[in-house]
Each structure stands twice: as structure tokens, then as C-alpha cells.
Amino acid sequence: MPEPNSGCLLWTGAVNSRGYGSTTAGPGKRGTVQVHRAAFELARGPIPDGLVLDHLCRVRLCINPHHLEPVTEKENILRGSGVGAINARRTHCLLGHSYDSVDSNGRRQCRRCVLRLMREGHRRRNPRQQCREGYVKHSFIVRGVQDARSPVCVRCGAARPTYERPGKNVVILVRPVAGSVA
User: Fold this and answer.
1) Could you give the count of Cα atoms lying within 13 Å of 157 in the half-sphere of its Cβ?
2) Which residues does residue 10 pair with via DSSP β-bridges, in sequence order?
3) Are 179 and 172 in contact (CB under 8 A)?
4) Are the CB atoms for 30 and 6 separated by under 8 Å?
5) I need a surface site. Which of 39, 42, 61, 152 has the fewest CB within 10 A?
6) How many angstroms from the chain centroid is the CA of residue 38?
7) Pick from 117-121, 127-131, 144-148: least confident
């Protein structure tokens, strides 16, 4: 049945689970064949080995041989609208940086985001030691031998946090120092 606006010849018979028209293989043969493949072979000759048919019109029920082109499976997937095709057409990461390098597995990546993720991972594995007031990278001093387990921030007098690592979780405990300024 011709579709007047696009020139597609739409199959009105049986449809397989993937949305392509199908029919029996013919007299004396078992199984089914996809109708668009049979139409292409009747009109334009055999499909070359290693190639699949791409519907240029993007209509799976179309059996017009002039709307079909033999291409590699990779090319057919990249022309489509699936997740792989959408990602292959992307030129920038989600933060808007252009993909400017390729990792060892051949995946495109943005160097700025890779460096950011590496820094965040480093910070997670090596938490900063801050005083209660939020001062970072202060020099902590040890007040005498008794307080050797509780170094104190030079700027605000608060105790340096101590870190206990039970398994993979990090628990931050801040122990107050006797006589420190709160």
C-alpha cells in the first residue's frame, strides 16, 4: 500500500516482534523472511555479504526497494535513533566541554572532567584536616607530651580531627582539647 506523502510502500501483512514485515519463506521452504529484504533482492539483486539493509525513510514497514540501502551494521546503528547513535553524535560532555582525548579503551572523554573526577577521588580518599572553624591546612601544634594525641590548630585552638577507618567508611571524630578556645 503506497503512502502518498513519503513514497513508502507500507506492508500490511504480518509483522515480527521487531516491527518488520514478515511472510513465509515460500513453497517447500520452512520459516519466515523479512519482506523488505525479499523486495530488495527481487528489485535490485542480492544483498552483499556482511551488509544489512538500512531504511533511509526510517519506516520499518516500508518495502520500497529505493528506500533501502545496504550498509554495514555499525553504519546502520549510527544512522539510527538509539542510545549508541545519540552518544556517538555528541561532541561535548554534559558540562559543555568538548571531547578532546580518548582513553585506553577507545572512549572519548573530556580532559577537564577527567581531572576534576581524579581530584574528587583524591579528596575522598585523603580527606582534608580542618579545624572546627573550617580553617584548612593550618599548622597543628602538639601541646606537651600529654596532649600528643590531640594536636591543636594554631589559629583557633580547636583540636585536629582524627580519622578512624572501619572498613571503607570514614568516620570523622573531633576530640576537644582541654583548655582550648571554643
Assistant:
1) 6
2) 62
3) no
4) no
5) 42
6) 37
7) 144-148
